[in-house]
Amino acid sequence: KEFNFMHLSAGDLLRAERDREGAQANMINNFMKEGKIVPASVTVNLIKQAMEKAGWADRKYLVDGFPRNAENYEAFFSAMTGHCNVKRAIHFTCSEAILTERILERAKTSGRVDDNEETLKLRFATYRN
Ligand code: C5P
Ligand code: MG
Description:
Blueprint: E1 5-9, H1 10-19, H2 25-33, H3 40-53, E2 60-64, H4 70-80, H5 96-110, H6 117-128
Parallel strand pairs: 1-2
The structure holds cytidine-5'-monophosphate and magnesium ion (MG).
Magnesium ion binds at residues 9, 11, 64-65.
């Protein structure tokens, strides 16, 4: 078996789209700062574009940080049916205490608008819902 996946991070794609400073940039940044999930159509389009850019067909993808909710899941399948074949979903669990420790360490260098204690609480609340 071949384990040669192209890594597509939904969060990275959203940050890149925000940094292009187009029409959706402020909206994306606000959702991130508030720890909320960006409307799925935006995220799914970015994933689809990244797959198209990579040449689609003969590739395998690891879509990281996705789906985050039912809207993500449904939008993915409506956009991708006939284009791709989902083989596996991987779900990791980790305590909020460890996540907080790791993210606050990452915050020292990440420059991310959501790597701070206040946004973290909102992100955990979003995850729990
Ligand atoms: O996965 P990552 O930690 O990079 O996600 C950072 C933020 O990007 C999330 O808290 C959320 O605001 C946004 N995001 C999203 N939908 C996804 C992935 C990330 O809205 N599927
Ligand atoms: Mg990530």
